[in-house]
Please model this.
Amino acid sequence: MTRPGAPLRWASIAALTVVLGACSSTSSSEPGPGQRELFPTVFAASSLTDAFGGINQALAHQGSKATFSFAGSQALVAQIANGAPADVIATADATTMSTVASHLVAPAQVFARNRLVIVTARGNPHRVTSLSDLANPKLAVVLADPTVPAGKYAAQALAAAHVTVHPKSLELEVRSVLTKVELGEADAGIVYATDALAGEGKVTAVPLAGGPVASYEIGAVDNAGRAFVRFVLSAPGQSVLQHFGFLPP
Model:
């Protein structure tokens, strides 16, 4: 993945081992009540797939783990509202989280932020440099559905740039946008910077200067989820998230 002009410099995979070791050390010295028996069910936005996988590795270092269900934020809150057995929910925006506020044992908190990028096939063969290029009718563009936070943010960015795009499809998960570009089923799409990082080597990312910044929120649905939320908000948890490209809250 190429990110021309990007201010961040991503750590190597080897650095994650150091981060996880720090997580284990910190958590072992201050385990907290029942922390080593932490086995929550976590509903999380699909863009958190890799980062929460890293969180789970960190938990494994202290004898704990979580079970995850990844999907579009809008689908997750609908499941929570219908009584799905989750201990934690993490969404890619505050608006979606607010619809299940009454189901939480404590107010949700912002735990990370994210930026949008355009993704194209590796090497950017169509030379896409800005949102205006996505209006080219010769390009097959895929976007997240506006009911999904990533789709809402993309719509905001396109409107602010006065660009009209006629997408080939609207996906119910932002990771589906990335997949279609990776597989060559679309020429370009709009995803989070962290998604583009996950597709490193398969896609090229084009930064969007001045685009909206996504705020991710997390909340415990029951007391069993409180320890997981605390870990994600802790310094070790934040280190893992930032390794995977998320911005601090």
Notes: Residues 1-36 have pLDDT under 50 and may be disordered. The two ends are 25 Å apart (CA to CA). Residues 114-213 form a domain with the D-Maltodextrin-Binding Protein; domain 2 fold (CATH 3.40.190.10). The first helix runs from residue 13 to 29.
